[in-house]
């Protein structure tokens, strides 16, 4: 187990690895250190039968950490998005099942993290949003279309609104709608099922039942992020969101 003052808490219960995003004050947004910690934890998890990814606090993950964007260049942003894409590929191509237990806000790269998992459990009341195409970023687009179909992916990506947990299940973005109080029992059941096959058989089965678009997805991301003006596009989108929030009537 890692210390609970780190960005990522790693716990192990026999052959089940749990990775808890531990940046609750930042809605578990994906800072570079957290991305690298996740990659390292998965690299070192060859002997597990199942992994769980969840978020500490009120939210699963609010997406890419933009708190220091004023200090970043287009090249810095490109590098960070490439590292996130490589993390998503590692999850998607994992030889063992990776389960997402998500609640609260599931946004941007956080929604891509959720979508990359084998089982995608969402709590009632959660909201999911994928705004990346507002700044013309092709992160996870191919995987999303393979998961929920081209039409549903286009509808989701062209619309700037959030969708509910129920809508996420309806379109296949989430696989299960389960309250947090029942997550422990569900995880135990999934762990038993994950151990039903020999480890090597599970790995082969996982490989044969998923789409592998690693080269296409990485190339699409790099092409989109390498176009000059990435930082300006992100900042413009953030400004539009803030203006919209200021105009929204108070509840």
What is the topology?
Blueprint: E1 8-13, E2 16-21, H1 32-43, E3 50-55, H2 74-92, E4 98-102, E5 105-107, H3 109-115, E6 119-122, E7 127-129, H4 141-148, H5 150-158, E8 163-164, H6 165-171, E9 176-177, H7 183-194, H8 199-208, H9 214-226, H10 230-247
Can you give a write-up of this model?
- This protein has ten helices and nine strands.
- The longest helix is centred in the first third of the chain and has 19 residues, at 74-92.
- A six-stranded mixed beta sheet has the order 1-2-3-4-6-9, with helices on both faces.
- The mean pLDDT is 93.
- The N and C termini lie far apart (42 Å).
- Strand 2 (16-21), helix 1 and strand 3 (50-55) form a beta-alpha-beta unit.
- It is α/β, with parallel strands linked by helices and 251 residues long.
- Helix 1 (32-43) runs parallel beside helix 2 and helix 2 (74-92) runs antiparallel to helix 9 (214-226).
- It has one domain: 2-enoyl-CoA Hydratase, Chain A, domain 1 (Alpha-Beta Complex).
